[in-house]
Amino acid sequence: MFRRGSYAQVASGSTGTTQPNSIPSQSGQFVRLSNSGSIMLGTGILGQSHHARSIDADGYHASMSNSLGRSGPAPSYTSQMSHMGGYGALQDGGAPTFFVPSYLQGSRYAEKLEEEHKARIAAYREQRSSNSSNAASLSTSSSSVNLHKPGHSYRGLAHEIIERAPSFVDEPIVSWPTRWDERDKYPQMEVEEDGRLAKFAGAGKSAHDEAAAIRADHPMPRQCGIYYYEVTVVSKGRDGIIGVGFSGSKVPLNRIPGWEPDSFAYHGDDGLCFTSTTSGKPYGEKFGTLDVIGCGINFHTNTAFFTKNGRYLGTAFKDLKPNMQYYPSIGMKKNNEALRANFGQEPFAFDIDTMIQHEKAKIQQEIVTLRAQSKEHGSTDETQFIQGLIGQYLAHDGYVETARKFAQEVRQEAKALSPDGSADVSHLQTEEDIDAVNRQRIRAAILDGDIDKALKHTNAYYPSVLRDNENIYFKLRCRKFIEMIRSCAELNAQLQPTIPTPSSKRSTASTLNKRNSTATDEYDFEMELDEQLGVHNGAPWENEDDEDDDLEAKQKKLGDLTQAMIEYGMELKQEFANDPRREVKRALEDTFALIAYENVRESSLAPLLETKGRVPVAEELNSAILVSLGKSSSAALERLVQQTEALVSELADDGGPGAFINVRKDFLQ
Amino acid sequence: MSSSTVSVSAPTPTQHHPFQRKVDEVKPSKPDIDFLVMDYLISHGYPDTAMEFTKEAGLALVEDESIEARVEIRHAIHKGDIDTAINKINDLDPQILDKDPALHFALLRLQLIELIRSCTSAPGLDITPAINFASSQLAPRAATNEVFLKDLELTMTLLIFLPSTDLQPQLAELLKPQLRQEVAAKVNEAILISLGARGEARICALYRARLWSEKQAREAGKDIPAVMPLGLEPSPVQSNGNGEAADVMVQ
Fold first, then answer.
1. Nearest CA to B177 among A11, A383, A651, A581?
2. pLDDT score recorded for residue A205
3. pLDDT at residue A247, rounded to an integer
């Protein structure tokens, strides 16, 4: 898969021996560095102690060496960062260029890659802002970054990344080709324009069949189903000895693709297509300057095709090896030959989108045909099965009233249908489930933000659940704290427009904010608490002339709320401060960072306050209660989605029909 | 908040299969599942349930003006009151039946079956209404369509054999409530499509995608468990003692 030494592996799982919650899947993520020749050694390989030093060949990858500074979550973050170098982002300081080829838009594969990319950008931005505030930009020498005290400025960065893109926990997703690979070319090939333009720059008078080839940076991904790229012949030189196609990673680069085993190409000088031999077979026309040649592989059928100026030329190769990784590859032989690649950065000349649509439609048709077949057995099976799914989901998730109404309506339907007016609804669970009622009550309480009520009910009905699921208990406690901060912020916002805040106060507050946002260090926590207290409590007395009683009452309430919130916070901190688990520490840090802001709603932490944050806690508790009752934690309907998604992804990985299905887009929206 | 979740899964027979881990790793989002349910309730016409669901799950109310009419139409077809159903469909949009001759024919045939059923329910009743209806309403449509003609001929043979408790299967099919259910579902779909909505609920497509993908995966020799139960609690009728294979999706 990864074939060259220029890939540096950064095993970033941190010290697995001391951190039970490290992210093992992060290890084995290969990191591609932008500057050729700089090779990193693995730093802190999973399960080993931190003894390896990273060798920083050019002193550029400051972030890399930083990973040595601490053992926390930082390594996974740095690995993302250095990966970005592969996009050429660190040099120009801008965001890495990311593109989705038009025909892959909306595909599950593109979605996954995009999620990963967004997380990387977010990490990059945070890293930059964090760095600049600490006067250690990327361009400074690595040593200055190394000097940072462990645990100081990179608080929580890595887990932020993971939270935003859960897909990181999975195997890293390999990108589609994005450019010609400067480290995977014959020396006489030159690469320009961000890796898009490749041209022959040799003497031109070398050995007889000496040529120069180059491969792209990533293999053509099977999970595309069909992969396609194009090249424009910028200049064909004198003879136009140009080959466009693909080859395996070990194919020698001193020959035009097509002449060697495992390489396949369509040649411009004779219009023939070649594989494994120097004698081609008739295929298309010759091509030359300004012609656009497209090359695609259908991984479902293991065939390859070419296009010329937007015209499909038919199948060129059959029986491609299903287990081989093929890289886009081109070869040239003479001076003044130059090709520009389009890996999807621009619209294609050939209407590949329609070809993909056609494949998708074919598969949807297959699925519909299945419907026709199942109809022959009678649609009642399907109808009843689906009614069963719906009914069980409603009961399972504690939608008691809804479940009751559903059973009622289904019964009415069955009655109308049956000749003797009897209703068979045996496929629905109709018996009252006292646990469902309780669970619904608990869920509703959490969704309302009334955590105390949820805790009370849970302890009353399912005392073992919180005991056995300490992490859920902890999350509920944190959520309660967040709810308290929420109410404070809400009340504060109500008061805000009516209180003429003295300008001096405002400026203190804003400087306070500024400082807090850059150095949300938990060591400052208590001090900030006091300041925060001062701000809120001080306000009413400064506005004594305010005539509104209601306002005063509100002020009083805000003071009380704030007081209660802080007391609760201290309690929470005391209870969990010594908890060794990393996720507990993180959650505590995050939650407490919230009080550092005067106006939390405008801070970067605002998402933590959103009410939708209640949903996962509610669901987790619901699942735990179900498990404690010996029931499955997920409803059959969820299983149906899970199984479908897993099966489809199984059918997509090797380029099978699953590549053309996006379960969420196609069936859940 | 931390996203780390503790995986809590009840023991299932397939737990140890590596594929099961992949299944467990998929985390369907609650809003997606709620959407599936809501979409089903609306498109298959369960307005009271849908209303209750918006309340209990805290969802936004989905407006669907046709739902009441669709429920009434379905009810009418299920009861065998096809005349009412056709009138109501035409009230909604006369184009629906005009554009779909097969659907119109299916409805008229249901009506014919009901006429035959009633005029053969006792010996000595007049069968001319059925014959008149067949020749005026169905025969002109069947004249130009092979399939319609066959269907009509088959239906007319009911006149000969009814009343009887021992019909050949092909004829017995015509009297089963499933036929009404099927036609009602088709009508519902047609109405939805005429309103620019998706014809069938997403959950139906998902269900078949699940069947399809398992079939494909088995054909491709993928390493997946022999059975993949969904965990639907077996209903009393289906219960087979061990309570696990009852809900295996069979094709």
1. A383
2. 55
3. 93
3-state SS class at A312: strand
Give the pair of three-digit tokens for residue B175: 């009297």
State the pLDDT confidence band at A217, using cuts at 50, 70 and 90. Answer: very high
- The answer for B 165-194 residues in CB contact with A (under 8 A) is 177-178, 180-182, 185
Rounded Cα distance, A655 and A632, in Å: 33
- Of A74, A65, A58, the C-alpha closest to A130 is A74
Tens digits of per-residue pLDDT, B43-81?
898 988 998 898 888 777 777 778 889 999 999 999 888
The answer to whether the Cβ–Cβ distance between A417 and B52 falls below 8 Å is: no
Our CA-based measurement puts residue A363 at a distance from the nearest CA of chain B, in whole angstroms, of 10
Give ipTM to 2 decimals: 0.83
User: What digits encode the pLDDT tens for the residues A273-282?
Assistant: 998 888 889 9
Report pLDDT digits (tens) over A290-344.
999 999 999 989 999 999 999 999 999 998 888 889 999 999 988 888 899 999 9
B56 touches chain A (CB under 8 A): yes
Residue-wise pLDDT for A473-500, tens only, equals 888 888 888 888 888 888 877 776 654 4
Average pLDDT of every residue of chain A: 72
Q: Please, are residues A311 and A350 in contact by the beta-carbon 8 Å criterion?
A: yes
Query: A608 by DSSP, 3-state: which?
Result: helix
* Chain A residues whose beta carbon lies within 8 Å of the beta carbon of residue B3: 162-163, 166, 616
Which is nearest to B151 in space by CA: B214, B121, B108, B203?
B108
Contact of B1 with chain A, judged by CB distance below 8 Å, is answered with yes
What are the residues facing A226 on neighbouring strands?
Answer: A298
Counting runs of H as helices and runs of E as strands, what totals does chain A give? 21, 16
pLDDT at B177: 81
Residue-wise pLDDT for A447-476, tens only, equals: 888 898 999 999 888 888 888 888 888 888
Q: Does B150 touch chain A (CB under 8 A)?
A: no
Q: CB–CB of A244/A366 below 8 Å?
A: no
Cα within 13 Å of Cα(B1), Cβ side? 25
Q: Alpha carbon A388 to chain centroid distance?
A: 34
Query: Is pLDDT at A90 greater than 60 in this prediction?
Result: no
Lowest mean pLDDT among A40-49, A621-630, B63-72: A40-49
B48 and A479: CB-CB below 8 Å?
no
Q: For residue B204, what are its two tokens? A: 């139906």
- DSSP letters spanning A478-526: HHHHHHHHHHHHHHHHHHGGGS---HHHHHHHHHHHHHHHH---GGGHH
Q: How many CB atoms lie within 10 A of CB A283?
A: 19
- Does domain A180-350 fall under CATH 2.60.120.920? My reply is yes
Query: Nearest-CA residue of chain B relative to A641?
Result: B28
Q: Half-sphere exposure of residue A73, counting CA atoms within 13 Å on the CB side?
A: 20
DSSP annotation of A86 reads G
* Chain B: residue whose CA lies nearest to A610: B1
Q: Residue A559's pLDDT is what?
A: 85
Q: Which of B12, B36, B207 sits opposite A668 (nearest CB)?
A: B36
CA distance A605 to A587: 12
Task: Indicate the burial class of B119 (C-beta count within 10 angstroms; 0-12, 13-18, 19 or more).
Answer: middle
Phi, psi of A406 (to 5 degrees): -65, -50
Tokens of A565: 């919130």
| CB–CB contacts below 8 A, A to B | 250
Domain boundaries, given as residue ranges, for chain A: 7-169, 180-350, 351-432+635-669, 477-612
Name every chain A residue with its beta carbon within 8 A of the beta carbon of B51.
405
What is the per-residue pLDDT for A266? 94
Report CB contact under 8 Å: A643, B9.
Answer: no
